[in-house]
Amino acid sequence: MSQTETPQRRISPLEISPDDFRTLGYRTVDRIAEHLRSIHQNPVTRGESPRVIRQLLGAGPLPHDGEDPFRILEEAADLLMGHSLFNGHPRFFGYITSSAAPIGALADLLAGAINPNVGGWALSPVASEIEAQTVRWIAEMIGYPADCGGLLVSGGNMANFVCFLSARKAKIGWDIRVSGVAGGQNRKLRVYASKETHTWIQKAADLFGLGTDAIRWIPTDRKLRMDVPFLRKQIENDKVNGDIPIMVVGTAGSVSTGAVDPLPDLAGICREHQLWFHVDGAYGGFAAVLPDASEDLKGLSLADSVAVDPHKWLYAPLEAGCALVRTPAHLTDAFSYHPPYYHFPDDEGDAPINFHEHGPQNSRGFRALKVWLALKQVGRKGYIQMISEDISLARALFDRVSAYPELQRFTCELSITTFRFVPPDLKPGGEETEKYLNQLNTELLTRLQNGGETFLSNAVIGESFVLRACVVNFRTSLQDIQAVPDIVIRIGKEVDQEMRQRTPGG
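Predicted structure:
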């Protein structure tokens, strides 16, 4: 090439011209806007089988030649909007997955276009500072110290893992990062959790070298909260036996029923025995923002660490979890390494924050933007309103269930209501009757989840299989709540009749 020639831009198969990108973007946004406008008119799900979905995609090999981006983006929109389960539907009550804030969807587009790597400040200057501010705002929102350490992660499991590893490093008397668990000369490490704790605790004990036998499962009271006297006695017995207790896990909003452990009492026991106090608030932690939050819930402010999920009660699109650790140095103690191929400033004083020092990931996407924008859009006041409305709607369902003789209600905590269908001619309590009711409600739930009218999940309370409705949905109205009992009873009667016809003697 001569000095007078103009260098040509590289032509890549992945490139899309600015004009085409603009047209594609407008078309896609129009499809999304129409989907959101009409979502309440469509089924929650079509209940299609894996075989049907796979047939839609076909079984061919990877295409040799590329395809037109206009056509394949339209095809993707058709697939997703025609064959998904819509957790943004106003009658989705199945799991603690909220309807996604529209501004969060736009935030993900913007974040993906800039594509900062929020592992090192130099790679993501403004994104790193937005994430740090988001962490401070989340902490402030739930009454936790705003000068804590923290970072955004994929969800509740990972947020709890980050806190677990911080506790493991802080509360063990040898350098576990170097010597491993074996450095304790075969003394058993102990963590304490109620039987209502999410299964992340088993994964953490397994993955991080303690083994699931390290977990002391503490029974619960009649409200499904951790039994404090039993916990105290268990810790004392373990110490006498030469074990090493390291942490207690409290729950702020259990998955099954929304139960909140007596967090201030657990904090007191941890102080007494110098244990790490962690709160799994992935679901219920954000309810601490409410002016009328219980003292038990406000007790999460006493924890050494807290896990919360913005993709639950902050209505952020998946994925968005958040780990908060009271003393920021505990994060770097647990995760920081300085390989020679890193040239990032140390995270001290006013130095830039490098999030790879605070968690398990090096390369990190810009999850914080969708959370940050929603916090700015509605503020504390807006979240107080929406969370309060969700709780009120769950209570309205609990109250409405009592008006139907075919429905038996069980619990209502935070925004979760549990109940079951009971045929009028059956009296609960007998062994055979309870066995039948469990089978009946299991089949009923399957029909509900495939039917598309509403989507519930289940809990097991005692020995009873019950239906579970969780409201974390800013689109749900009182009308949607009022429709649930009639749907359940209608389908429940159909299932009951079919089951009796299949049973000898009816």
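Summary: The longest strand covers residues 244-251.
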